[in-house]
Amino acid sequence: MRPFELTEPATVEAALASPGTFLAGGTTLVDLMKINVLTPRHVVDINELPLRGIHAGDGLRIGALERMSDIAEHPGVYPVISRALLLSASQQLRNMASIGGNLLQRTRCTYFRDVAMPCNKREPGSGCPAISGANRMHAVLGTSESCVATHASDLAVALVALDAEVRLVSAAGGRTIKLADFYRPPGEAPEVDNDLRPGELITEVLVPRLDWASRSTYVKVRDRQSYEFALCSAAVALDVQDSHIIDARVAVGGVATVPWRLAAVEAALRGAPATLASFEAAASVAADGARPLSGNGFKVPLLKRTVVRALLELTEGSR
């Protein structure tokens, strides 16, 4: 780790006036600093800022410094969010990691994290060896000729499914943006992960009220049961009445460069009976547009099966 200066502002205004890299739980930033993937000269510790609180009512308002473990245990949090959090990392890391930091975490692509290797996300123009190299864990959706790295956050998948927004502030003012619009597929600029502007800070996550999201879940398929990133995951919420689907929200992770909303699957589910046949028919379009690589073609059928599994989990006993 290279030397750096540390400041600890007590107010949001002071933090925004301090140039540098913001540090919350540090579960991603410190790791990347240790291996010199990130080498900030000035780190701004924001843990004393008043950016906490979980408020349930007309939707959810979650302060950016709330820890993942506290959010998962809060009674007003939708099951899909709680489950996505509980399936993330380890208990120790969940006790430290903040919701804002989780949403900003960098990819776990091994080429990105190895400074001896080229990586367009770390060094634009250097190349993407994953395209022709070891790519079993990489994306099949939202990829480009420049990058095929997956987005790492489980929580972000659940929040995208629920149309969540993030509140961003800077010295120039504030703005609110949908999380689905916040993340950027790599295109020709894979070094840009999201729409966070220089000097901006996430202060709050906003989840619209959705009463039927009480019937929701998060299914995560991975190589081992704990402390592992997803090969494929599905965040699903269903409104089921009289054994028919009135509305649906579906997003997936582990298979795309950003949290991936499946609008076509949602459309196929609306009005359909809550049956295995309907679920399989809807999931058949889940991988439309996929571009599998040499080592991850299995993710196409796995994606479809994971969506079906989540739908079955939500409707068990109602069919």
From TrEMBL:
One of its GO terms (molecular function) is FAD binding. The keyword Iron-sulfur does not apply. Residues 1-212 form the FAD-binding PCMH-type domain. It comes from the Bacteria. It comes from Saccharopolyspora phatthalungensis. InterPro entries: CO_DH_flav_C, CO_DH_flav_C_dom_sf, Diverse_Substr_Oxidored, FAD-bd_PCMH, FAD-bd_PCMH-like_sf, FAD-bd_PCMH_sub1, FAD-bd_PCMH_sub2, Mopterin_DH_FAD-bd. It holds the Pfam family CO_deh_flav_C. The lineage of its organism: Bacteria, Bacillati, Actinomycetota, Actinomycetes, Pseudonocardiales. Keywords: Oxidoreductase. This is Xanthine dehydrogenase YagS FAD-binding subunit.
